Amino acid sequence: MTNDTTYATQTDQPVKKLRRSSSDKMIAGVCGGWARLLGVDAAILRILLVATTILGLGTPVLIYAASWILMPQDED
After folding, report:
1. pTM score, whole prediction
2. N or C: which end of the chain has fewer CB within 10 A?
3. Is the Cβ–Cβ distance between 45 and 36 less than 8 Å?
């Protein structure tokens, strides 16, 4: 009796880590880090952050500040 089931033990893709960007930053690199993780342009995230701050009465600013404190800086 043979077992033909194969299990993937390792993938070829590197693990993406959420870190503040040291190269793509305007204030602290939070949007640059999120953009790198999500694979989008950082300018789009910055525009969304400003728009939601205006419409959301400042809550995104608190999220940005928490991310600034909690996200480690990348080593680039």
Report:
1. 0.71
2. N
3. no
